[in-house]
Amino acid sequence: MSDIDLLDLPLVLLSNRGPVSFDRDTAGRTVTRGAGGLVSALSGLAEHLDDAVWVCGAATPEDAAVAGENDGGSILVQTQPSPHVVDGKPDGPSIRVRLVVTDPDAYADFYSVWSNPILWFIQHGLYGRSLTPVLTRADHDAFENGYAAVNRAYADAVADEVRSRGGKALVLLQDYHFYLVAEHVREQCPDVVLTHFVHIPWPGPDEWRILPGDIRERLLRGLLGSDVVGFHTRRYARNFVLCAGELLGLPINLDELTVQVNDRTVRARYYPISVDPAALDATLASEEVAAHVAMLRYVFLDEDRQLVLRVDRTDPSKNVVRGFLAFGTLLDQHPELVGKVSFLALLQPSRTDVPEYADYIALIGAVVAEINARHTKEGRQPIDLRMVEDFALAVAAYSICDVLMVNAIADGMNLVAKEVAVVNRRGGVLALSEMAGAHEELGEFAVTLQPFDVQQMADALYAALVMPMDERHRRLAAAAEQVRTHDVRRWLNEQLADLSHLAGFS
Ligand code: ADQ
Asked: At what angle do helices 234-248 and 213-223 cross, to 10 degrees?
């Protein structure tokens, strides 16, 4: 039994990307399931319940067409054996989905101006501050007509679903796109039990002072419409409570991590997100991964060679450029490693419409070219940079790497580190940024990276590469045990248990 059974409440989920997406090919309409641990964990929950609905954005023109055909109401999608819309009673697991269509200009301001980059940059500390950001009237307008308007539309859809379930429901909101939703939903449906999980770091009050005063206050007040605001780590939860105290002047309790909002007590909690180990084990056992493993071994691991790996989106927060600079420094200072150690980078191009991201990709290419020119030996280049999104290839590389590099400037959790802990079979060492949420759980089994210090990172990579084999295996086994016993199901169940307690059911 899951903890949701204890609640005995209908469930309304909200996230920007939903569990299914519609498209068209030559044969007509297609339905695809969303990928990733979060979608599969929440899908498992929604499939398990009779009265659940998942509110999400219409991401494609075909999504919008489906929403229009149903007058903006929800549809029932049977998820297995293959996803399809059902009219009557499904004969397999199903999810009720409500696709929200918003004005394209408002959505562009919501998504491409405020969610990414402004909120993302604030929360990952990516602004240089001397020259960026330059917030203008256009940004104020984009907040009002974009972020706030779109949040209002999603909140109305959520409230509509709550009302149609009798006005009392458990509402689970996800991420930085929707900071204003909780307050709007509570205004319309005061009996909801509401939690908002923030997947990215929450910095302290001074970072938030970069934003206009009225906007940061609205964002905080919006989130405080929740009963629980969830984060990956205690540090982020504490920062949130500090913000409520310093920026809004509300009474707070830093030991209990609570904020008093009139007669309501809002709780900040931390629930470290994780992976689905069984799904990863199954992927690792697939023929596709086996074929990749054979090829990667042939290319990178003949004789006594070693492999450093990174797998990331090309996001400036992931600190790819300094990672390569550190690897270049390692080869400069340990010439005996040249020709013996390769660096494979599988980078998924991300948000290329944002100028900072496009510039960042160009810079990555230039830095790699320079290091490869400096250290090519016997025709072998030290860095193999592949701009691909290929999860089977990533899992294959996870399983055989000697070192995984995660050197993010800031990272809510970082699931790549947890995936490697589960599937690596070679005593792979995690080289893990102290600024990634995962460091709280896995830091003691990793070598720690300080993401701004290229020399420190080069030294840490060296320590990882020369670490004795028994020590490598001991650390990896301990990291794997930590992840397997703290999987994504536990992440969800702990939230539900807390809510069930709050709602007075346990
Ligand atoms: P992300 O910033 O996307 O997630 P992360 O947690 O590392 O970061 O998850 C990335 C996922 O995409 C992993 O499952 C990884 O395997 C996959 N991936 C990355 N590059 C890939 C590639 N080139 N090819 C194939 N697959 C690739 C945000 C936050 C994180 C937080 C998660 C979940 O920024 O801090 O851990 O949400 O809350």
From this structure: 120
How many other CB atoms sit within 10 Å of the CB of residue 36? 12
The two beta strands, 403-406 and 429-433, are: parallel
For the chain, 506 residues long, the average pLDDT of each consecutive 10-residue run is 64 94 94 81 85 95 95 93 91 95 97 95 96 97 98 98 96 97 98 96 98 98 98 98 98 98 97 94 97 97 95 96 98 97 96 89 97 94 97 97 98 97 98 98 98 98 98 98 96 91 72
Q: Which of 416, 418, 483, 488 to mutate to test the pocket of ligand 1 (most atoms within 8 A of CB)?
A: 416
Do residues 45 and 52 make contact, with C-beta atoms less than 8 angstroms apart? yes
Q: Which helix (H) or strand (E) holds 77?
A: strand 75-78
Q: Which of 264, 350, 347, 339 is nearest to 311 (CA)?
A: 347
Tokens of 194: 């509401």
Q: What is the pLDDT of residue 354?
A: 85
Burial class (CB in 10 A: 0-12, 13-18, 19+), 199: middle
Q: Are 488 and 37 in contact (CB under 8 A)?
A: yes
Answer whether 411 contacts ligand 1 (Cβ < 6 A): yes
Sheet containing 193-197: order of strands: 84-86, 75-78, 94-100, 52-57, 11-14, 170-174, 193-197, 228-231, 264-270, 258-261, 252-253
Contact 311, 385 (CB under 8 A): no
Take residue 482 and report the two structure tokens written for it.
């930590």
pTM for this model (two decimals): 0.96
CA of 474 to the centre of ligand 1 (A): 26
Is residue 263 a contact partner of residue 224, using CB atoms and an 8 Å limit? no
Judge if the beta carbon of residue 344 lies within 6 A of ligand 1: no
The answer to whether 20 touches 32, Cβ cutoff 8 Å, is yes
Give residues with Cβ within 8 angstroms of 124, minimum separation 6: 200, 201, 316, 317, 409, 410, 411
Q: What's the per-residue H, E or C state across 400-420?
A: HCCEEEECCCCECCCHHHHHH
Please identify, by atom number, the ligand 1 atom nearest to the C-alpha of residue 411.
Answer: 35
Q: What are the angstrom distances between the C-alpha of 88 and each of 65, 66, 78, 218, 424?
A: 20, 17, 11, 42, 45
**DSSP H helices in 253-390:** 277-284, 287-300, 320-333, 355-375
